[in-house]
Design brief:
It contains one helix and six strands. The protein has 139 residues and is mainly β. A hairpin with a 2-residue loop joins strand 5 and strand 6.
Length: 139
């Protein structure tokens, strides 16, 4: 398991939103994102009360899912995964500087170049957001 997202994802600063893959066992994964006041989106997103935009929490979940998929046994690699869908997304609490996002998920399907993942972002064990994510993989 390569825990460095830069080795797997094509994203770079400021769009790389996962610090590392913590674990991957079977179809379950855990990744981490330290949320700091230096994040570029805090400059314009509620600057007097910084809040991480929900869409970026979902993007972090998608990047964590891509890491989990790439670390999965039987994944061949060399393919590019594209975020294809978000279902049942819910935001349950705000994420602020100083929080550590624990990005967890379970791969529920992976066949014919399509993957589905149930994903959840937690802060201090409390759900900040959850969603069902879909990906397509192309060579």
């Amino acid at each position: 398991m390569n825990d460095d997202p830069r080795a797997v994802l094509p994203h770079r600063y400021p769009f790389l939103l996962v610090d590392r893959l913590v674990s991957q066992e079977g179809d379950a994964f855990v990744a981490r994102k330290n949320v700091t006041i230096n994040e570029p989106f805090f400059v314009g997103h509620f600057p007097t009360e910084p809040v991480m935009p929900g869409v970026l929490i979902l993007e972090a979940l998608a990047q964590a899912a891509a890491l989990g998929l790439a670390a999965r046994e039987g994944f061949e690699g060399g393919e590019v995964g594209y975020f294809a869908g978000i279902d049942e997304a819910r935001f349950r609490r705000k994420v602020v500087p100083g929080d550590v996002l624990e990005l967890t998920g379970t791969i529920t399907a992976f066949r014919r170049g399509v993957a589905r993942v149930d994903a959840r972002a937690l802060v201090d064990g409390e759900t900040a957001a959850d969603a069902k994510l879909s990906f397509v993989y192309r060579p």
